[in-house]
């Protein structure tokens, strides 16, 4: 009997899941990926756009149907998900499914921080999680000859836990690249007690050391709660304010509305079983940034593409077995890695096991040109894998 699997979202997790499923399911089974555009931006390259090492055109991704043979690509807006009725309502019609994979990612929510949406709209604040935002911040920083640049996190969770600190390092590298002495001060503020807190104190302390080495101030336990663009002040939860000339913010993140409407978990994120990515709804799996996966130490798994890629095969195996097809036992190993660019085409690399029963076992290797080249190879591989 032929079955239908609906995969919502054509990012890292969704595409990799569809590819694995096509290998596991019978030829008569349908795999339908639903996405509003099948065009995206290569997230791992956004900070290179900020630094000026990539142009916007270099990092746009248009999914080529030929790269996912045997998979139907439905270009449509997702309007509602009905797990009880096993249907997804879209702008192109209703899709019935036998198994559902939700890989819709996370969205930015600048309106959740008073003053931020207005400041972003008129260029008195910046973000670097979109292509336009990263490019606009680059153009604002390049001619900067003085003043203070503040990087601030408005709330957790957010995509890529290293991003605000890596962005500060690359921004400083951009401003100082011509070798002249610029009286520009750089500061990074976070609600967490250390950078990448989930990775443990050793990694956090090493990152603080890298920031200090590059003359970037680090300010822990300070959550941005509002922005006063008229005064050019960032306001924090402790009541303090910080003046700035350039403000770069990690906006609050939220799940897509259709996911929040499911009511499966606190804040609208989808809770999943750590090793299998199963949700509380029968026949529904979720992976990537849209999920909340609780680690043995009680902290959530970071939102990062490397985990979505690792979870994709796990989800595909679970879906295939659910549909009565032969597949390996699903088991997510919790391993992941990330690169932290410091400038000068050098990067550090953090990697380890985040699902270790005693807590994440993560190490941070010293910066090198080799790690930067590894990240370049990842970028090339992804573009070749999915685009024409």
Automatic annotation (TrEMBL):
Name of this chain's protein: NAD(P)/FAD-dependent oxidoreductase
SUPFAM superfamilies registered for this protein in UniProt: FAD/NAD(P)-binding domain (SSF51905)
GO molecular function terms listed in the Swiss-Prot or TrEMBL record: oxidoreductase activity
InterPro entries per the UniProt record, alphabetical: FAD/NAD-bd_sf, FAD/NAD-binding_dom, SQRD
Gene3D superfamilies named in the record: FAD/NAD(P)-binding domain (3.50.50.60)
Organism the protein comes from: Actinomadura litoris
PANTHER family documented for this protein: FAD-DEPENDENT PYRIDINE NUCLEOTIDE-DISULPHIDE OXIDOREDUCTASE, PTHR43755
Location of the FAD/NAD(P)-binding domain: 4-312
Domain of life: Bacteria
């Amino acid at each position: 009997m032929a079955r239908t699997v609906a995969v919502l979202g054509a990012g890292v997790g969704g595409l990799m899941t569809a590819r694995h499923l096509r290998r596991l399911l019978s030829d008569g089974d349908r795999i339908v990926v639903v996405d509003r555009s099948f065009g995206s931006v290569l997230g791992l390259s956004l900070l290179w756009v900020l630094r000026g090492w990539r142009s916007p055109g270099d990092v746009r991704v248009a999914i080529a149907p030929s790269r996912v043979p045997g998979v139907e690509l439905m270009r449509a807006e997702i309007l509602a998900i009905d797990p009880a009725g096993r249907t997804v309502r879209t702008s192109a019609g209703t899709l019935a499914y036998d198994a559902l994979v939700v890989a819709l990612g996370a969205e930015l929510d600048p309106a959740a921080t008073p003053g931020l949406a207005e400041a972003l709209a008129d260029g008195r604040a910046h973000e670097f999680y979109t292509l336009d935002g990263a490019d606009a911040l680059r153009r604002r920083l390049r001619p900067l000859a003085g003043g203070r640049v503040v990087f601030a996190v408005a709330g957790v969770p957010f995509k890529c836990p290293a991003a605000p600190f890596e962005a500060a390092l690359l921004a400083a590298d951009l401003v100082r690249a011509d070798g002249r002495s610029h009286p520009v001060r750089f500061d990074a503020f976070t609600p967490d007690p250390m950078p990448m807190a989930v990775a443990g104190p050793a990694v956090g302390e090493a990152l603080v050391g890298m920031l200090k080495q590059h003359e970037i101030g680090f300010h822990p336990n300070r959550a941005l709660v509002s922005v006063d663009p008229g005064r050019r002040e960032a306001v924090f939860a402790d009541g303090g304010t910080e003046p700035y000339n350039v403000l770069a913010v990690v906006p609050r993140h939220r799940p897509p509305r259709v996911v929040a409407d499911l009511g499966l978990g606190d804040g609208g994120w989808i809770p999943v079983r750590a090793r299998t990515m199963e949700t509380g709804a029968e026949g529904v799996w979720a992976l990537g940034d849209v999920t909340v996966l609780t680690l043995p130490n009680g902290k959530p798994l970071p939102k990062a593409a490397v985990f979505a890629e690792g979870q994709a095969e796990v989800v595909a195996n679970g879906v295939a077995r659910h549909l009565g097809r032969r597949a390996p036992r699903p088991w997510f190993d919790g391993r992941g890695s990330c690169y932290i660019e410091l400038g000068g085409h050098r990067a550090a690399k953090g990697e380890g096991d985040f699902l270790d029963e005693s807590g994440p076992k993560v190490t941070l290797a010293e910066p090198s040109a080799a790690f930067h080249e590894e990240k370049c190879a990842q970028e090339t591989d992804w573009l070749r894998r999915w685009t024409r």
